[in-house]
Amino acid sequence: MDNAVPEAILELDAVVVGAGFGGIYMLHKLRNELGLDAVAIDRAGGVGGTWYWNKYPGALSDSESFVYQYSFDRDLYQDTPWDTKYVPQAQILSYLNGVVDRYSLRQHIQLETGMTEAEFDETTGMWTVGTDRGITFRSRFLVTGLGLLSATNLPKFAGMETFRGQLVHTGAWPEGLDLTGLRVGVIGNGSTGNQVITSTAPIAAHLTSFQRTPQYSVPAGNRKLTPAEFQSHRENFDANWAQVRSSSVAMGFEESTVPTFSVSPEEREEIYQRAWEEGGGFRFMFETFNDIATDPAANEEAAKFIRSKIAEIVKDPETRRLLTPTDLYARRPLCDSGFYETFNRPNVSLVNVKENPISHVTAEGIVTADGTLHELDVLICATGFDAVDGNYVKVDIRGRRGETLKEHWADGPTSYLGMATNGFPNMFMILGPNGPFTNLPPSIETQVEWIGETIRHVSASDTRWIDVNRETEITWTETCSDIAHQTLFPQAASWIFGANVPGKKRTVMFYLGGLKEYRSVLAEESLNDYPNFMTEEDALAPA
């Protein structure tokens, strides 16, 4: 007799995968506003998504606090006490936990529960979602909020398994790790590496930065908001959020309409200097002039200014050379809290791994090609993520005719609107491939609200499911590529095109047309009764 415990199968209207900014709002939308029976699952031990996992030293939003939060409930906004320009990780995590409790969502979130597989059944029109906790969900709708930046990208160096110290990735930071008085190595110097290096150097016995590509970074300008600023954000709630939704990058400032070379060199310098003093990476790139991201000559003017600042700040000539970028200023714009100044510290050293590559790892630390052993107690990999599609292709997700999402995306991830992909009916992605490249909370809200309205539309219709047309997905992918190639971003080796993952095909993974235009496309789709989607009846009708 078989004594195995039968697997539990729960029938629902919708399953939400992920409990970060997107999953939390989606669950609220489905349960509290649409009245559907929905649950969220997350492999983490707590809610928060990216902000649950990324607990590394210095973790901070680089969107300003007054627009790095939800806007769907004005009372929630009024009650949020953030009074600094940017928000530390711990405050964001506390905020998201508070949102979960405020809207009575916690009992409908199953933590430490990862999706292992998902399969669509055309006969029943249902998704079956398997988990690693012995629970299977069967639902009409599947919404994935897997996160842009959550599939960790860990480098592979010979001998890593022999390292006697502690090896950590910033995207899976262990609780209670204290770096005080330790010899710390940091691989990577993007946004995360920048924050870790700047925060850790003052407390470490020694910090070694293993840098592949020097980065352009400007000051963050983080500070306490004045009471007047704090009050203004609340009093101008409607105007501020209207501006965000009608802007391109949704960062809470008016983007410049002034071309770089329409002003004198002296005025140009003054504008850059004001932006440097105010702080903010996106402000520097998009609030100063309107062509930094599109015109190589304008881009070089901005890059030249940042290089001049590096030259002023960094004292040692060789360190200065290694920290000074010479390529385009066309990656995700960074900001920092004293990154370049950190390399003036006597306990900080810099290794350029393009000129002096990492040879292998030993029990004691990292050996570089010149034979030097860099002795370490802790090795931190700030090497980013297999961004956008990484979490999707690691799970066996099967749509119509048994096609897997990995097969569907064999030539690179595609979608329509960053939310739907052909052959996977009633599956909607929050921040899927080729969604908008903006400050994320406004884009997340935009997508969740559109997905919610679409689910309401399908639920009220005679069809069981809808599926985006293949031709529409191809056209949207081409549109995203065309827009991206009107900018300089594809010319830089960046994670936003998958360049940080060895062997990964470079592809456009974002819609760079801005939030305003994106929202207008969504409105047109829903107002015209979803012309780019087919119903179950359309899909199954004889040719």
Provide the fold topology.
Elements: E1 8-17, H1 21-33, E2 38-41, H2 50-53, H3 74-79, H4 89-102, E3 109-110, E4 115-121, E5 126-131, E6 135-144, E7 166-169, E8 183-187, H5 191-200, E9 206-211, E10 217-219, H6 227-235, H7 237-245, H8 265-278, H9 281-286, H10 296-313, H11 317-323, E11 334-336, H12 339-342, E12 348-352, E13 358-361, E14 365-368, E15 373-375, E16 378-381, H13 390-393, E17 396-398, H14 405-408, E18 427-429, E19 435-436, H15 440-459, E20 466-468, H16 470-484, E21 510-511, H17 515-527, E22 533-535, H18 536-540
Parallel strand pairs: 1-2, 1-6, 2-3, 4-17, 6-18, 7-16, 8-9, 8-16, 9-12, 10-11, 19-21
Antiparallel strand pairs: 4-5, 5-6, 13-14, 14-15, 20-22
| Percent in helix | 25-40%
Largest sheet: 8 strands, mixed
Structural class: alpha/beta
Which runs of at least 5 residues are low in confidence (pLDDT < 50)? Answer: 1-6, 495-501
Q: How many E-type strands?
A: 22
Shape: globular
Q: Quickly count the helices.
A: 18
Rg from Cα: 24 Å
Task: Tell me the β content.
Answer: 15-25%
Give the N-terminus to C-terminus distance in angstroms: 50 Å
Q: Look at the structure and give the mean pLDDT.
A: 93
